[in-house]
Specification:
about 180 residues; mainly alpha
Length: about 180
């Protein structure tokens, strides 16, 4: 929404979100003041705005406002500050330098302990769990459901797929 008074004052309002309760961002004042405030507020580069009409800048700001609303409210993301982005870029650059130098970033991991800690519970073999579940299924419908929930396991393990087929035939014969 834009309005312009007779004395040259301009008012621009941005509404973010779809609901009535979402925030409104309002700029008002002299045309050049409103223009510079919108550019600064929405993080646009002044060089990108040179030669553009007020309406084009309004549309650019509106796109930024709507994008931020979608990213934060609908996707659950958090907007990073410039400092956070710079810190992340620095960490990524350091990681890339380490990898380029041929150093193994995982070389020192685990050297502090002489003997790996034994867990109290034995490791569970997911393949064995699926095989046991195949044997315990009592209907073709449940067997199909098991397959759809564990497709990757069935495709990666021929013995699991074979057990599935055998059990399916046995259930069909029993029915």
């Amino acid at each position: 929404m834009e309005t312009c008074d007779m004395d040259g004052r301009l008012s621009v309002t941005f509404k973010t979100g779809e609901k009535f309760k979402e925030s409104l961002i309002n700029f008002s004042g002299a045309r050049e003041f409103v223009r510079s405030e919108m550019i600064a507020y929405f993080g646009l580069k002044p060089s990108e705005c040179d030669g553009r009409t007020d309406y084009e800048i309004r549309l650019m700001c509106d796109r930024v406002a709507q994008a931020v609303e979608i990213v934060s409210n609908k996707l659950g993301a958090v907007i990073a500050t410039k400092g956070e982005v710079q810190a992340g870029d620095a960490a990524l650059a350091k990681q890339n330098e380490t990898e380029a130098a041929g150093a193994d970033p995982w070389a020192g991991v685990g050297e502090a302990t002489a003997e790996p800690a034994k867990s109290a519970e034995p490791e569970v073999d997911p393949r064995r769990v699926v095989l046991d579940t195949i044997e315990s299924v009592t209907s073709v419908k449940d067997l199909h459901r098991l397959w759809s929930e564990n497709k990757a396991m069935f495709e990666a393990n021929p013995d699991v797929m074979a057990a599935y087929k055998v059990r399916g035939k046995a259930l069909q014969v029993a029915a």
